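Predicting holo structure, flavin mononucleotide bound.
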Amino acid sequence: MTTIEDRFRLPCGVSLKNRIAKAAMTEHQADADLLPNDRHVTLYKRWAEGGAGLLITGNVIVDRRHLEHPGNIAISSKPGDPTLKWFRALAQAMQTGGCRAIAQLSHAGRQTPKVVNPAPLAPSGIKVALPGEQFGQPRSMTSAQIDDMMGRFVQAAHVCSEAGFNGVQIHAAHGYLLSSFISPLTNKRSDRYGGRLENRARPLLHICERIRAELPEDFILSVKLNSSDFQKGGLTTEESLQIIEWLEDRGVDLLEISGGSYEQPAMMDLEGMEKRYEEGKAESTKKREAYFLEFARAVRERSAIPLMVTGGFRTAEGMNEALNTDACDVIGLARPLCVMPDAPHKIIDGEIAELPSYDKTLALGPGLFGPRSPIKFLKALNGFAIMAFFYENIDRLANDLEPQTEMGLLGAFLKGQRRMAKKARNLN
Ligand SMILES: Cc1cc2nc3c(=O)[nH]c(=O)nc-3n(C[C@H](O)[C@H](O)[C@H](O)COP(=O)(O)O)c2cc1C
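Done. Tokens:
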């Protein structure tokens, strides 16, 4: 019987001390130099002391013109660069207590906010279809630009290795650049990077091949991939399963499955949130736990790749059941760790049976104003305002403050917007 407290050995030989991983959460803590700083160190030391076996950073961007937020960490250093000391400090903080440290490498592509880049690079010139004009008109990449981008991912992995990280996770989910190459909705190319699935997956597969070939054998190579785009005409689950087989062939050590994009944020299950809000704490809470588990079981039938499932895990029972029925190997947790950074310790020690999630909170209310609102603007505003609650608490943890569980979400949203505008001004 496998439980959350059991060790797990990855194919590259590195062991995790337990089965709980902190999934990537973008921190928005970097200053205009886009480097890790003391706040990152404080934040990750707290999370490492919180008991997870693995910590994955939020988006670490491989091209500073394509940040997901002006407060992202970006890697533009070369191995041997003096700025590496900050990456080293971060990796060390993450490894407190024998925890393993992975940097999530990303390029925001068409989801780069306009304040960072009004004309970001993307597979095709298809703009993010969200109200509010937050994103600019993307430019279709030339093949030289694609080569340059793939090289940046590999270069960033070298930098992370030199800085002492145990590995990297290539972010190929949630609509960012690599995921937008994979999705037929956002990739309309007719060259060797468009059309057939193997063409759309080519940048991701090429990056994985090079990292596996060039980095040390015990360097963890992880990928975060969408199980589906949850949009008509988008990536299908069958296509995702095929990509997973290819990733297994390329020696990926840990596949994390998620889903969706800014336009359809399935990874947050906001609609499930509204249902739970309406039903109170009914039996359905348990049924909705871990919304990508069904897909995980389909992966198991096709591939032996080590599997991490993230999204919705909230009870010890739900996590142990997923491990024990061999649906996955590692449990990813995100939002609960913003309000309780030592939740892994508490749930492994049996001090608590259920994690605090605060994900039943709605920004504006249910119905017309809720996450299922037919009015696109209100639906989007709800999503961004709910996220603001978690960003605000990450900011509190990074500043060595205690989390705050009661806050006006619209106020938090506006505060976040002001912080983003200020950081964007400092960037330029
Ligand atoms: C504040 C916040 C920031 C996030 N940033 C990232 C990110 O940088 N990269 C990523 O892959 N996922 C990111 N996510 C998604 C989480 O990794 C995770 O997939 C999602 O929150 C579902 O897991 P949960 O139900 O345990 O929160 C973020 C989520 C939150 C709440």
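The chain is about 40% helix and 15% strand.
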